Amino acid sequence: MATIKYFIRGKSELSTIYVRLLDGRKIDLTVSTGYTVHPNFWSVAKGTIRQIANNNEKKNLSEDLRKLKDKIGDSLNLDKDKGIFIDKEWLEGIIATYKNPVLVKRTDYMLSIIEAYQEEMKIKINPKTGKRIAPTTIRNFNTTIRRLKLFQSHKKRKYYIHEIDLTFHSDFIKFLRNKEKLAQNSISKDIKQIKTVCIDARDKGISINEQVLSRKFNAPLEPTTFVTITEEEIELIKKFKGTNYLQNARDWLIIGCWTGCRVNDLMALTKNNIMINTKGQKFIRYTQSKTGKQVDLPIHPDVQEIIDRLGDLPHPISDVKFNKWIKDVCKSAGITQEVYGTKQDLDSHKKITGIFKKYELIRSHTCRRSFATNHYNKLPNKLIMAVTGHSTEKMLLNYIGETENTHLDDFMTIWEQDNLKKKDENPSTNVVNLKSARSK
To answer: Which of 47, 131, 198, 378 could hold 292 in an S-S bridge, CB 3.0 to 4.6 Å?
Structure first.
C-alpha cells in the first residue's frame, strides 16, 4: 500500500510543504506542493498543520492537504491499472490539477488526446468530400502515436498538451532524427499531425501552448525521391511470363500504370466499374476512397487487352503481396538498372536512400506516379489532374517532381520566332553592319 507524507524544509517564516510518495521499491517521489506554512504551525511528528482555534486560514490549508493526499492516492491506483508512468512529472501534474482544475486536467495527456482524435476520425465526415475519412488516413496516425510513445519512454515522462511547445518540438525532432534515424519527410508528417491534433483540442476548449501555432512549429519537407515505370518498361512487363500469381500481379501493375489509381482503389475495381457513354465508348468510373472524388477515364488498349483475355479484371490481392510480387515481375522483366532512390529496410522498416536496382524501388504507388509522369507534357495538366485528383497544378507538379518553369519554353519559342522573322525581313542587315564597322 502506498504511503503519502508531508514535510517542510527550512525554518523561515514561510517554509515550503513537500509531499513524498512511496509505493513498493520502484516509486519514491518527492515534490513541492506549492503550499507554504510557518514552522510554528507545523507538526513535524505528524506532518500536518497544528489545529489552532479560530484560525480559518490554517484550517483551510489543513483541509487542502487532506484532500490532496486523497487525490494522490486515488489517482495512483487508477493510473497504475492503466499502465501510466508514475514519475515526478505525474505527481506534479496531480498537484497542479488539484490546485487549478480549470487550467490543467489530468486527462490532458498529449498521447491520450491524439489517440482520442484518431478514434473520432472513424465517425467524422470530411467537410471537403462529404464522406467519411479514409481508413488509410486514420491508420497513418498509428505511426505518430508509436513514435510519441518511444519519445516519452526516452524522456521517462509523459507530456501534457499544454507542454507541446517549441522546446518539445526541438527535442522531438532531435530524437526522431538522431535516435530513430528517420528521414526528414517522416519527421515532418509526425509534426504536422501533432499540430493538427493540438489545434483540434483548442477548438474543443482545451488549453494549449500558443507556441504550437507558430510557423516555427514545423518540419520542412525534402524533395521526394521516387522512380517511375516508363512506357518502354511497360512493354517489357507485358512480355513477362511466369506463375499465375505473378501474372496476376503483372496485370494489376499494367492497369495501375494506365489508370493512376491508388492501390486500395485499384484492387476494388470490378466489371461494375466499366461504363459506356452515349458514343458507345467504354470507360472506367470509380470514386477515390481518399478524396471522395468521382473519376472517369478511358480504358487504355493495354487494359482492354487484359479484360478481354481474362473476361474480367484480375483477382484482387493484398497491398503487401502486390508490393512484393511486382518487384519480382520487374526483376524478371529486366528492369534491373541501378538508380538513385528510397526504399524501406526490411529489418528496421525505416526508409533508406541510396543506389539500388530499379526493381527494388518499385511499389504500389509507383503506378500512380508513372501515370502522371508519362502523361505530363503530352496532355494538358487539367486532364491529368482529373484522373489523379490533384486540386491544383502546383500539387501535380510537386507530385511528379517538376517545377513551374514551362513559361521558359514559351518565351524562348516566341523570341526565336521573332529573331528568325527579323532575319528573313532583312537578310543583309548583318553584312551592312559589318561593312559599316570596318569603314569606321
So the answer is: 131
